[in-house]
Design brief:
Elements lengths: L4 H19 L8 H14 L3 E6 L3 E7 L7 E7 L26 H18 L5 E7 L7 H7 L2 H4 L2 E10 L7 E2 L3 E4 L1 E10 L3 E2 L9 H19 L6 E10 L5 E2 L2 E10 L2 H21 L3 E8 L4 E3 L1 H15 L4 E2 L11 H7 L2 E7 L18 H15 L3
Parallel strand pairs: 3-4, 3-5, 5-16, 6-15
Antiparallel strand pairs: 1-2, 2-4, 6-16, 7-14, 8-12, 8-13, 9-11, 10-12
């Protein structure tokens, strides 16, 4: 069965919602106007219960099926934008300087709103659908905050599903895989303390720039010589700060970077090797290295059974040829990972067509994708809560 006629007919209205949200981006947990818009629409649609303030500014809508009592499944969309100045020049471009929906969360919200509207009108299922609108995906851990605020237990959510658009994948196509689909994201900072001095007398100094340069090179050996070559691991140094004059060897240098991994073993390996390399190389030269390693979002790991259910729903909408069930893991991170740690579920990718990349000032969500996302949510909910 292809895209729902209802979803196709709703596209223009959903695009209006999406463009309104695009014009008014908000960051992290400071999404009150966005949450108010979402809650207002859910009440307008006749959603049975609309609960605000979950995880500070999250919104949950509960839709009861007409077929009686049953389980509750959760469908999640993220609400926050990014601190990026928009350069699309679109009529619906951001009206707030330095903020834009550069990751498509405006589209994610519009698709879930469209599904909520349909499900509240038809109610062709048993149990409840919880539509979850989450703040602070972009680095704030809003998914974790909602869980800690009782999301899963309070609403008795048995399964939870997420979706994200993907530039370069055709509109109308989906991609998914069981197991890790997105990476854990960690960050590290290394402060090297040597001894400053005159650049003309390097023998009287302990040069933290030279030591830092050696550390940068050695860190690349973690992936090539310490990690299993058939596993995926990224260690990238993205910052190097040192010095203030051409003729002075500074006393300190600071490095920073990111680690992306898909398994607990590689996450532990990277942290251990970064500490050992930095501290060891500094000690060899008579300096000290202080390493701070921060673990951020865990990997997004799809549950096998729920991945099959998600793929089946996508196939119902797009056809088997348009659904890739062996999508290569994506080294970006996603805090839906916390929800998948709390409950069985799956995260699926939806094509955004030939658009600019995510987190790009030229990016815009493709409104042609809206009917596919709306239809996917509906088919998934009805299948998982079949009357």
């Amino acid at each position: 069965m292809p895209v729902l006629n209802y979803a196709a007919e709703l596209q223009n209205q959903a695009a209006e919602w999406r463009r309104h949200l695009h014009r008014h981006p908000e960051l992290l947990y400071d999404v009150q106007a966005t949450a108010d818009f979402i809650a207002g629409k859910l009440r307008q649609f006749g959603v049975d219960e609309v609960i605000e303030g979950i995880g500070r500014t999250g919104v949950v809508g509960l839709i009861h099926g007409r077929a009686g009592e049953g389980r509750t499944i959760g469908l999640r969309a993220d609400m926050d934008a990014l601190p990026i100045g928009e350069e699309t020049g679109r009529p619906w471009a951001s009206t707030i300087p330095g903020k834009m929906h550069a990751c498509g969360h405006d589209g994610h919200m519009a698709m879930l709103l469209g599904a909520a509207k349909y499900l509240a009108e038809t109610r062709n299922f048993r149990g409840r659908v919880a539509v979850i609108f989450q703040p602070a995906e972009e680095g704030g851990g809003g998914g974790k905050a909602m869980i800690e605020d009782g999301l899963m237990d309070r609403f008795s959510i048995a399964e939870v599903y997420g979706m994200h658009n993907f530039p370069g994948l055709p509109v109308g196509a989906f991609a998914i895989r069981p197991g890790p689909i997105m990476a854990a994201t960690d960050e590290f900072r290394i402060v090297i303390t040597g001894r400053g001095g005159h650049a003309a007398q390097p023998h009287k100094a302990i040069d933290p720039i030279m030591i830092g340069s050696q550390i940068v090179g050695a860190l690349q050996m973690i992936v090539s010589r310490s990690a299993d070559p058939v596993s995926a691991l990224v260690v990238s140094v993205t910052e190097f700060h040192a010095g203030f004059a051409h003729n002075v060897i500074p006393s300190q240098a600071e490095l920073g970077g990111t680690v992306r991994s898909f398994t607990p073993e590689n996450r532990d390996l990277a942290e251990g090797r970064i500490r050992a390399i930095a501290e060891g190389l500094a000690a060899v030269h008579g300096a000290k290295a202080a390493v701070t390693y921060t673990r951020n979002y865990p990997p997004t790991v799809n549950h096998e059974g729920e991945t099959r259910h998600a793929a089946d729903a996508a196939i119902t909408v797009a056809g088997v040829e348009a659904v890739d069930t062996d999508f290569a893991p994506w080294t970006a991170a996603e805090d839906f990972s916390y929800m998948l740690e709390a409950r069985p579920g799956a995260f699926i990718i939806l094509g955004n067509g030939d658009s600019a990349g995510l987190h790009n000032p030229d990016y815009d969500f493709n409104d042609e994708a809206l009917p596919y996302g709306i239809s996917y949510w509906v088919r998934l909910a009805e299948a998982r809560l079949a009357a």
